[in-house]
Amino acid sequence: MDLLPGQSLRFPFFLLGLLTLLSWELARPHHSPAPRRLGRWLENLGLAAINGGALTLVCWACFVIAAREWPPWRFGPFQAIPMPGWIRLAGEVLVLDFLVYWLHRAYHAAPVLWRFHSVHHSDTELDVSTASRFHLGEVAVSGAAKLGAFALLGISPLGLVVFEILLLLAAQFQHANVPLSPGLERALWWALVPPAMHRIHHYPERHSTDSNYGTILTLWDRLFRSLRRVDRPSRFGIEGTSGPAPSGIHRLLGYPFRSSARTR
């Protein structure tokens, strides 16, 4: 698989998910949106533009490792153990989703990581644009962790592309301000993270914020007892804060270094 075409697949899927879910939100929102939508969208998508360069570099580095089979790549279990292609792909996606689950928990547990992750949780509204609201520092840490896992485990280029696309679409879907039928909602709770499940994660109360960490599968929250089911009308944001969320890309980039972001 060519390096640049493989990485370039991510952007069309980003636009497809964004425009589809944004249209759904405008036509039939789950909860009433705030009046200041355009400004939030521009800020959140502005962060996405800044982070896109960092993600491109990380993914390009992953592809170089895979294409040239540098050590320790060729000693990774997915590279060393013979298996059918579809089993390898499913295993790679499963392992990477497991890694992202624990990385998410680390962002909530470690104060220095929470400073950067708090930019995401500082959004007092929740819609598809929130899926793009991440600080560059968090993107860099996550990218380094995934790069290390990619090299050490012997993840294939196809596995990387499929996982990144699934991760992107799942994040957009679970943040979207869209209603689902009760039957579909219940079915998704057993396998894939629905918006109602992740909505709880963005409630300001800490017992809600520190739950429902999954991005693609609900399996890890069930297995490690971090699943929370109580869904009720609530505001969004960070416990102990009041008033509007920080506005302006420069303020969002500086937010982790404010004293209010250092503690929970």
User: How would you spell out the order of helices and strands?
Assistant: HHHHHHHHHHHHH
How many DSSP E strands?
Answer: 0
Largest sheet: none
The proportion of residues forming helix, as a percent range, comes to 55-70%
Averaged pLDDT, please? 84
Please indicate the percent range of residues in DSSP E strands (runs of 2 or more): under 5%
What form results from the Cα inertia axes?
globular
Derived structural class: mainly alpha
Please work out how many helical segments DSSP would assign. 13
Gap between N and C termini, in Å?
Answer: 44 Å
The stretches of 5 or more residues where confidence is low (pLDDT under 50) are 1-5
Report the radius of gyration as a whole number of Å: 18 Å
Question: Can you give keywords for this protein?
Answer:
264 residues; mainly alpha; 62% helix; disordered N terminus
Would you summarize the structure shown here?
This protein has 13 helices and no strands. It has helices spanning 3-8, 10-27, 37-68, 77-80, 85-109, 111-121, 136-153, 157-175, 182-189, 195-201, 206-209, 219-223, 249-254.
Q: Overview of this structure, please?
A:
The chain contains 13 helices and no strands. It has helices at 3-8, 10-27, 37-68, 77-80, 85-109, 111-121, 136-153, 157-175, 182-189, 195-201, 206-209, 219-223, 249-254. α2 packs parallel to α8 (157-175) and α3 (37-68) packs parallel to α7 (136-153). The radius of gyration is 18 Å and the shape is globular.
